[in-house]
Specification:
303 residues; 5-stranded mixed β-sheet; 3-stranded antiparallel β-sheet; 23% strand
């Protein structure tokens, strides 16, 4: 019978893209990992990996063997998790990646509740609009709001619900530049937008009957933080697309108004992505369960 550790070592080398990265993850010398995989290939009598000076790639049989090794590793992790959940309360550090606006409006208010409920858990949350590589950078969970889940690749997805995004402006701006009657009239208004200075921006809008319109414009003011842009919208600098949960109060108080009711960007899907469902440690599972329960109950970030 094969040494099951060798199967796990092989799967980790493939998953990490090389012996050095796998060695760091497993806390084993690179040379030892290389020797163990070579010995595995010798015992099997087949080559699993094609080695070049630049990268590793799987052979045809290696690809099939890798899938079985991953299933074996995840089954072992799931078995260990059952024991961990039965014997201990959630503990350890959860590394979370979260966009700026989501952290400020949704995660910030509720995370203290989670930490109070699970005193043995620590949260290391990195707040940034930069797209992260969960596996390469060692994150347990990344929180996202995007129009589609199709770019999640092989990651596991937990969907928390949808958010509406609205096209808003201040009454003062509309009094100064006129209220649009159609999407073609949007060009008469100044805009502020997420992005980089000097770039043209495009807002893909959906109308009442499902028709689409790509509104291209040159923003007067760009920033990579929606909370910052909202100040400019309130002062009449330009119209912007904002999540409904960021401007609900201002809309009620008529400090902001919808520019063209019925036209708006597609709703965003608020979700979490993580590398493996079977390998979730108790602390991460409890964190995801807590987010799902709290967001649904309190209505954070949901349309």
């Amino acid at each position: 019978m094969e040494d099951l550790n060798d199967l796990v070592y092989f799967a980790e080398v493939v998953n990490r893209g090389g012996f050095a990265a796998a060695g760091r993850a497993l806390n084993l010398p690179k040379s030892r990992l290389s020797r163990r995989v070579a010995e595995l290939e010798a015992r099997l009598g087949v080559r699993l990996l094609q080695r070049t000076t630049r990268k590793l790639s799987l052979t045809a049989v290696g690809e099939q063997y890798y899938r079985h090794c991953v299933a074996l590793r995840e089954s072992a992790q799931a078995a260990q998790e059952v024991v961990s959940q039965a014997q201990t309360e959630p503990r350890g550090t959860i590394r979370v990646a979260c966009p700026v606006t989501l952290a400020q409006t949704t995660l910030g208010p509720i995370l203290p509740q989670f930490l109070a409920r699970y005193p043995q858990v620590r949260v290391d949350m990195r707040v940034s609009n930069r797209a992260v590589d969960l596996v390469e950078e060692g994150f347990d969970v990344a929180l996202r709001v995007r129009p589609t889940l199709e770019d999640s690749g092989s990651l596991v997805v937990k969907n928390f619900g949808t958010t509406a995004t609205l096209l808003v402006a201040s009454p003062a701006q509309l009094a100064r530049q006129g209220r649009p009657r159609s999407v073609a009239d949007l060009a008469q208004l100044d805009t502020v937008s997420m992005g980089s200075a000097g770039e043209r921006a495009t807002w893909n809008l959906i109308g009442p009957d499902g028709e689409g319109y790509a509104f291209q414009h040159q923003p007067r003011y760009v920033a990579d933080d929606l909370a910052t842009l909202k100040f400019a919208v309130l002062r009449g600098t330009g119209m912007c697309v904002l999540p409904d949960y960021m401007c609900a109060e201002e809309l009620r108080e008529r400090l902001l108004v919808q520019v063209l009711p019925g036209w708006a960007p597609p709703p965003g899907i608020f979700h979490a992505v993580f590398p493996s469902r079977r390998g979730l440690v108790p602390a991460v599972r409890k964190f995801l369960d807590f987010l799902g329960e709290t967001i649904q109950r309190e209505g954070f970030a949901l349309a």
